[in-house]
Design goal:
Number of strands: 11
Strand content: 25-35%
Largest sheet: 9 strands, mixed
Radius of gyration: 17 Å
Strand order of the largest sheet: 1-4-3-2-11-6-7-8-10
Shape: globular
Number of helices: 4
Distance between the termini: 19 Å
Structural class: alpha/beta
Helix content: 10-25%
């Protein structure tokens, strides 16, 4: 049984979505445009462990923590209760990031493979999203172009089961104040500079474990 308790040891620092449907949008940004957007969404003098113009709880900022033995370097573990994403590193450590998860029953725990990575992705709401919230999503049924206001933000990691795209993503968000909450339509959200950092570290083919959310109680300072 997949549980959140077996994978991370003490989390004291050592040192420091929407669901996306088929791509219908028409253009891809140039490298210059992507670089300009990266600059736009990254605060000046950005330091991952301390920069916080979004007003997040400090525990949700990136930290390097101790991982339990036996975990596979490169894999991702999402603790839905504490709202943490861990990227396992060689040498017994992990980088920990704060996240938001799906609201209500939209979060889907399970074991997935990251088979695709995209910088500044397009986004299209699924038909289920449009039917559930037409006022919010119907206007984007033909797709939303990449950019800082795009629902997938600056980077997206695409979650598959076998060869099947689940339409679940780990992605950036234009709503950084949602981090630490249940806010998305099923995906795992991250602050854009944080997902930019994670994106560079993650290789396709690694496993992402999304653990069950153990109730909707208040976020605590401990995982």
């Amino acid at each position: 049984m997949l549980t959140r308790r077996h994978f991370i040891a003490t989390t004291a620092a050592m040192v420091s979505a929407p669901i996306a449907g088929p791509v219908l949008a028409s253009t891809w940004p140039t490298e210059a445009q992507k670089s300009a957007w990266d600059t736009q969404v990254t605060p000046p003098n950005y330091v991952p462990a301390t920069t916080n113009p979004w007003g997040l709880h400090p525990r949700l900022l990136p930290q390097r923590v101790e991982a339990r033995p036996g975990l596979v370097p490169g894999d991702i573990h999402v603790d839905a209760t504490a709202r943490y994403l861990y990227h396992i590193e060689a040498g017994g450590t992990a980088m920990r990031y704060g996240v938001a998860i799906g609201r209500g029953g939209l979060y889907e725990p399970g074991t997935y493979t990251i088979r695709r990575k995209v910088e500044w992705p397009h986004w299209t709401p699924t038909q289920a999203m449009i039917e559930r919230e037409p006022d919010a999503y119907a206007q984007y049924e033909e797709g939303m172009e990449p950019g800082p206001r795009n629902a997938l933000g600056s980077r997206a990691l695409y979650l598959y089961v076998g060869d099947r795209d689940t339409y679940l993503r780990i992605h950036g968000t234009p709503y950084p104040r949602s981090i630490g909450s249940r806010a998305s339509s099923g995906c795992v959200r991250m602050v854009m500079p944080h997902i930019n950092d994670l994106y560079e570290r993650v290789e396709t083919g690694v496993t992402a474990f999304l653990y069950p959310a153990e109730g909707d109680g208040p976020v605590t300072a401990h995982s």
